[in-house]
Amino acid sequence: MNYETTVSLDEKSKKSDTKKEIKIYDQKPTAAFIGASWTALLIGMTSYCIGLWNAEMQLNEKGYYFTILLFGLFSVISVQKAVRDKLEDIPVTDIYYSISWFTTVTSIVLLVIGLWNADLLLSEKGFYGMSFLLSLFAAIAVQKNTRDVQYLDRGCIEEK
Fold first, then answer.
1. CA dist 78 to 24, 102, 111, 136, Å?
2. What is the per-residue DSSP string for 132-145?
3. Residues 6+ apart with CB under 8 A from 152
4. pLDDT by residue (tens digit) across 20-48?
């Protein structure tokens, strides 16, 4: 049964006739969120690196885990940039967008494989995994906050 009245049909037609509005982003991130993002990034990276420094593993293993951290951080920043560029109608090639996601997933998979095969205590493996993921998430937040602040400081709101 159709319970729609003529009023509800009129409302639907009005909604479909309106043009898609351009979203204006005018909310600057709070100082607390910016500070929390930077703090999380520094804590995650520092913890991970201190753990590597104190680990009883060969130097080449330490280098592997450190490289994975750098690779992961760069990858998530690249993903955040590509996603944001698409949102702001800045051209992003599909290949760059795909590679950004691929390298992000690859960095996580490489860390998991490395930890799976490492002769470490389970608590140490969990520590590296959590500090790595904290660092990746925080890097995304820091990049987003930086982009938001620069976007608003450039006065892009008035241009649109």
1. 23, 11, 19, 11
2. HHHHHHHHHHHHHH
3. 25, 26, 28
4. 555 666 678 889 999 999 999 999 999 99
